[in-house]
Amino acid sequence: MYRNRAAAGRRLVQRLRERVPHVDDGDLVVLGMVPGGMAVARPVAAALRAPLDVAVALRLSAPGHDALGIGGIASGGVARVDRRTIAMLGVTPEYVQETIRAKRDEVERLEQRCRGSRSPVPLEDRRVIIVDDGAQTRFRSRAAVAAARAALAREVIFAVPVAASDMLAALAEEADAVVCEHVPERHCGIDAYYAEWETPRIEEIGAMLGRIVPPPTRASTRGLRTPEPR
Questions:
Q1: 13: helix, coil or strand?
Q2: How far does CA 133 lie from the centroid of its chain?
Q3: Dihedral class, residue 152 (left if φ above 0, else alpha if ψ from -120 to 50, else beta)
Q4: What is the pTM of this model?
């Protein structure tokens, strides 16, 4: 169990350094999935000395069932849909397209609320690490990866502290690499793996983007303690 999302992020950094060659090298951007993934992404961005930005992705819900996903949509209107579930439920193409249009506008509004006056961090020709607090909705996560690709990222890595093995396999179809700190034999709700489960409010995310302080190099800080993200 993780004490909180920040502690999970610090452990995830270790796994990234083990699994991804030269992860600390330049041209890296860290994206935190809004909302909960941002608190995990902050210590990752700080430790890897990388800029931090938001990854906004929303579920596309089945008619009359908000909790039942039929896909996901992310920045730029990039969507991934679950064609099998759509066919099984008899969801019409018109409903799918209408839902995509509505959620695309919601994604744009949410991005603006998170960033405020800040511009998006450019992803073109850069290595991108997308961080979440736990992979629960595969099409939402896959939409975020696809959106980074559409923004011309050179490489897209999805990193998460905890996830089920089948969810990781689905993500591996979209991302260049998937890094997970803990894969439980029997998976339950993500909140069960955190002692503290307070999700950041949207109003707090802009402050997170503005307070990233990469830790100094060891050579310049002998005898000093490296500040940890709050």
A1: helix
A2: 8
A3: left
A4: 0.89
Q: What DSSP character marks residue 59?
A: E
**Can you tell me the distance from the alpha carbon of 124 to that of 153, in angstroms, rounded to the nearest whole number?**
5
165-172 vs 138-150: helix crossing angle, rounded to 10: 20
Nearest-5° Cα angle at 25, 50 to 116: 15
Question: Residue 71 in 3-state DSSP?
Answer: strand
* Distance of alpha carbon 28 from alpha carbon 210, whole angstroms: 17
**DSSP code of 80?**
E
Torsion sign (Cα): 30, 35, 40, 42: positive
Nearest C-alpha neighbor of 120 from the set 29, 25, 9: 29
Cβ pair 13, 47 in contact under 8 A:
yes
| pLDDT tens digits, one per residue of 149-191 | 999 999 999 999 999 888 899 899 999 999 999 998 877 788 8
Map tokens 């800080």 to a residue. Answer: 221
Rounded CA gap, 109 and 75, in Å? Answer: 11
Q: Are 5 and 39 in contact (CB under 8 A)?
A: yes
- What is the C-alpha R_g of the chain? 17
Q: How far apart are CA 192 and CA 5, in angstroms?
A: 12
